[in-house]
Specification:
This protein is globular. The two termini are 29 Å apart. The protein has helices at residues 12-32, 38-45, 64-84, 91-105, 136-143, 178-189, 196-213, 218-229, 238-258. It is an all-alpha fold and 259 residues long.
């Protein structure tokens, strides 16, 4: 349960801004040590690892995780723009077009069978054109030129983190039900990753963000989505197990992370 401090609750706009900014900042710290093992990280930054930007020399950069998160936002915004103009739009098609525009920023050509998206303002930001070790499944799934779905998957064996890392925005969409949050996120995951674990993990992460934005505390929200994961039809066996393991590790705090 959230602790009442007497301070006014953050507005929805503030929560959305905080989620996107916090994700980008965390991504930038993670990108600085992405390919280092724990021993190397501790050698460079001490026993607690990298805990702040002041420890980095030469600046910092966010990765493809933030790039794709922002393109997810743009795809959702385009779908909302169509809806506000009175035209129904396929949300997942808008997201697919957004991801194809991201694919072009990475210097990767889409096949002739893929649609040619109309440019949008986000495409003009040069920082989003920098190649930051994009995930192979994200690239290869989009490069098929096929709009992947749960019943017609691309990369059917791919279940890496490339879906989860871009899925926070689905939890930020206001005035939709938790079931809709999960479905939007899982459907979008299918655009690049075909394994059920990838879809389910993305959906659960978006639900976690949705619950936090709705005002739940972290422990309450985490316990809630862990319980929800166990109810998913055809749930990947590792998903509830790993969520429970994450909660147990979090309970141990920083001492547990050092062991």
């Amino acid at each position: 349960m959230s602790i009442h401090t007497g301070a006014p609750a953050p507005t929805l706009k503030s929560r959305i801004h905080g989620s996107l900014l916090g994700g980008a900042l965390g991504d930038a710290l993670g990108y600085a040590v992405e390919f280092d093992g724990m021993d190397e990280i501790r050698r460079r930054f001490g026993a607690d690892g990298l805990t702040g930007f002041e420890a980095l020399s030469g600046g910092s950069h966010f990765s493809d995780d933030t790039q794709l998160t922002l393109y997810t936002v743009d795809g959702l915004v385009e779908a909302l723009e169509w809806a506000n103009s009175g035209v129904g739009a396929d949300v997942n098609a808008c997201l697919w077009l957004a991801y194809l525009r991201w694919l072009a920023t990475q210097g990767e050509p889409a096949p002739a069978s893929a649609p040619v998206p109309q440019p949008r303002w986000i495409d003009g930001h040069t920082v989003l054109h920098q190649r930051r070790n994009p995930g192979r499944a994200c690239i290869s799934g989009l490069a098929t030129g096929e709009m992947g779905t749960a019943v017609r998957p691309v990369n059917p064996e791919s279940k890496g983190c490339g879906t989860v890392m871009r899925s926070a925005p689905f939890g930020l969409v206001p005035h939709i039900t938790p079931d809709a949050v999960y479905k939007l996120s899982a459907d979008a995951a299918s655009l690049t990753h075909g394994h059920p674990s990838a879809r389910q993990s993305a959906g659960i992460f978006s639900l976690l963000v949705h619950r936090l934005v709705s005002g739940e505390g972290l422990a309450e929200a985490a316990a809630g989505v862990t319980a929800h994961a166990a109810t998913i039809t055809g749930v990947a066996p590792e998903l509830p197990e790993r969520l429970q393991a994450a909660l147990q590790l979090a309970d141990k705090g920083i001492v547990g992370r050092r062991n």
